[in-house]
């Protein structure tokens, strides 16, 4: 209880400091901050006019700051903007997107104008701050662990998702405004939301800023890092694969396959597939449905049953899973089912839409602290009975996981295990294991 009270005090300090620092960032440029610090320091020395050089520097600093402030006094900020964000990108990619800035006020002008995005919710809640550990926090000294400053700093950076740069508003005039390009480099996966933008002018000497925050939320999805060189594991050599003859039926619109059933004709069906005899008997058009047998496909399973709010090992396996999914997409052979813990997504085909939905599910994957791994086994085993193979990704490769893989192998499902962390290999499963260490 005492520790939580102390942590709340630290949380208030850091929140106040963050807001103060944010206001300073919006009032001063980097050069301006240096000049203010110089002027403040010289107050203790420069007021002695007999030390002429220090006094001159102090007076010049104050004069420059005052001139810059006066140059911004009559600036107007009647603007509105529209940005065109992509639906998704991946970690570390320089995401460029167009922005249109328009005037709402005739007094507003585009001269010496700058634009920067602002994060929607950069500060963590107290609950998150109190329970989420910074990666590697256990290696810090006792004082740093108690104060939690580096934890706070890491959580703010995680919420922001990347560095927010300034962009000069300069480009092609269009639609009563200016079209220019902005960019952002995401540093984490998941959904990143911009709360709006800070539109500002800089003073004549580039020391001060004066602007306005314009609210305009926008978001995009960030995928885990994709390794293009990732190879799909082969099933050769696995005894269960050699006798695996599991199949499933896939509907085909053309003839040449097994005639499975008749159904009512709908616009868009081929006239060649109309079953005329049945149509004559029923008084309405009936069309033939054909099916072919294909292999029963595969399962991709993400194990998200762990207690930590954040795990570097979990990020590694997600990156590996996305890389595998991308390789399977290139091979036009996506898995039939994607598990993220207890969540299930059936992938109907290898279309771009299905692929995008699967990627989004992986990008937004979070840990499931409320359930245990055993809670998903019944569903997993049922799916394994009808699948050719399973790609199992885990950051917690313990005995329970190993037993589950052996059970799936006994059910005739080829297992491919990808694990991260300090877990040890299993002698029976070692030939099917891959340690992820991106």
Task: Briefly summarize what is shown.
The chain has about 450 residues and is an alpha/beta fold.
Topology:
Elements: H1 2-27, H2 30-46, H3 52-72, E1 79-83, E2 88-90, E3 95-103, E4 113-119, H4 126-131, H5 142-147, H6 149-160, E5 167-168, E6 172-174, E7 177-184, E8 190-202, E9 209-223, H7 239-242, E10 247-252, E11 258-264, H8 276-282, E12 286-295, E13 298-302, H9 312-330, E14 337-340, E15 343-346, H10 352-363, H11 377-385, E16 389-394, H12 399-410, E17 414-419, E18 433-435
Parallel strand pairs: 2-9, 13-14, 13-16, 16-17, 17-18
Antiparallel strand pairs: 1-3, 3-7, 4-5, 4-8, 6-7, 8-9, 10-12, 11-12, 14-15
Helix pairs in contact: 2-3, 9-10
Structural class: alpha/beta
Distance between the termini: 40 Å
| CATH level-four homologous superfamily name of the largest domain | Immunoglobulins
- The tally of strands reads 18
What strand order characterises the main sheet?
15-14-13-16-17-18
Name of the level-1 CATH class of the largest domain: Mainly Beta
The percent range for helix content is 25-40%
CATH topology of the largest domain: Immunoglobulin-like
**What is the overall silhouette?**
flat
Number of helices: 12
CATH architecture of the largest domain, by name, is Sandwich
State the low-pLDDT regions, or none.
236-246, 248-254
Mean pLDDT rating: 86
Radius of gyration: 30 Å
As a percent range, the share of strand residues is 25-35%
Order of helices and strands: HHHEEEEHHHEEEEEHEEHEEHEEHHEHEE
Q: Major sheet: size, sense and barrel closure?
A: 6 strands, mixed
Number of domains: 3
